[in-house]
Amino acid sequence: GTGHGHLVPGDVGRQLHRRPRLGVLRVVPVAVALHGGPRVRNRRRARHVRPDAANQAVDGKGQLKSPVMLEKYKQKRNFKSTPEPAGDVKLAAERAKSAKPGKGLFFCVQKHLASHLHYDFRLEYNGVLLSWAVPKGPSLDPKTKRLAMHVEDHPIEYGTFEGVIPSGYGAGIVMLWDQGTWKAESPDVDAALKKGDLKLTRDGYKLKGSWVLVRTGGRYGSRGGDARSWLLIKHRDEWAGDLDIT
Ligand code: MN
Question: Pick from 56, 117, 223, 244: CA 20 to 30 A from residue 8's CA?
């Protein structure tokens, strides 16, 4: 038998009680919080971004991305009634250019008490947050695979958002549940996402070590079904265990 003490390093308990920095809603502190350094992003610099680049952002190789960046996110929301960030494509473009994946990119998990409680799992990539809604939340047990529905990219500013969405899409309470940095274990993230098999390492307050996101549905899946269906699975390592964290 393996108890918590055996599988889960001693400081996990302490980590669980450490709260991430909360309630930071403005753009500049967000950039600082995400980069971990003082004054990393000067908003005035946004003016110097060429208009085409500002509206399109770039991918990891410096190539311009599709102009539809964050469009789905914006379409689903009425920013007159939701306190969620509107999504700044200039910030996304700058963020994409300045990101250093080797040093780790931002990730967060938000607990979302909407009509159905779920955990939104977000990974910074190409200036935005790739997002999955995980109904049961992450499990530290490698045997417990958690359904993760791929949803629309969210703006980087969403990474420290907390608040009440009073009505409309996602109405309910959003709380920051974990945050930290992630690194891809897969050498080519674009290829891994396309294939539907992204291995990653996380260094958060609650979630650490090696994980995988595997697409199960759609044309790349074996079972057909909803192309948005993925599984979030913990790999067996020193951060795995049977501690229930949700
Ligand atoms: Mn959600």
Answer: 117
